[in-house]
Amino acid sequence: MAAITATAVGQGPAAPTVTTLTAADTLTYSPQKRQLLVLENTTASPVTVTVDGSTGTTVAVGGLGNVDVSAGKAITVAANGYQYVLLSTISAFLSGTVAVTGGVGVKAMLFEVV
Length: 114
Fold this sequence. Notes:
With about 110 residues, the protein is mostly beta strands.
């Protein structure tokens, strides 16, 4: 299990911290910061990475009612491809301890804009 470490991005260049994912990893979601998660799949097959907060159950959505977020947010990364997500856009899935699963071998980078 590895913790995906954030790289602060501000003025000037920055070298990202790259984490190669295992079967079960974690990240720290900070809603007060703009965080961007970038996933790179260097394999010849698509990989589905799931980002799941430990206390997410349901969220009330206007016009829809309650939406189940308990299974986390699945993000499919194409073979030899990239996928990114601004964490604030999936915040309902990120309450509690955030697990990142299913991404064995995928490279992850977490950026925090300061």
